[in-house]
């Protein structure tokens, strides 16, 4: 099983059903050294599934005071590939260590991410 940290739309029931065909059970955790920004989604399938045009995105800060709350889901490699397909080009999957010490996959801002100004 693969551990995936979710802080955004992958926590939504409809997004889980659309992408994995099931609801996921998660464990609460925190990602340290990141904050959340927002990106505008234009992919019609992602918009239909999430119902939202603005999605949160992780921005690396290296500041230990910055923390993002989320859930760790344990999914198959096939489900991880589906999650990769769901995430648009603004996101890139990387390994990270959570506050609990668990290592998991995260989706963070890619170099080409069009992060909205605050």
Automatic annotation (TrEMBL):
Q: In the UniProt record, does the keyword Phosphoprotein occur?
A: no
Q: Origin organism of this chain?
A: Pseudoalteromonas rubra
Q: Which GO terms describe its molecular function?
A: ligase activity
Q: From what superkingdom does this record's organism come? A: Bacteria
Which InterPro entries does UniProt cross-reference here? Answer: AIG2-like_dom, GGCT-like, GGCT-like_sf
Question: What is the protein named?
Answer: UDP-N-acetylmuramate--alanine ligase
The UniProt record lists the Gamma-glutamylcyclotransferase AIG2-like domain at 4-111
* Entry keywords, A to Z: Ligase
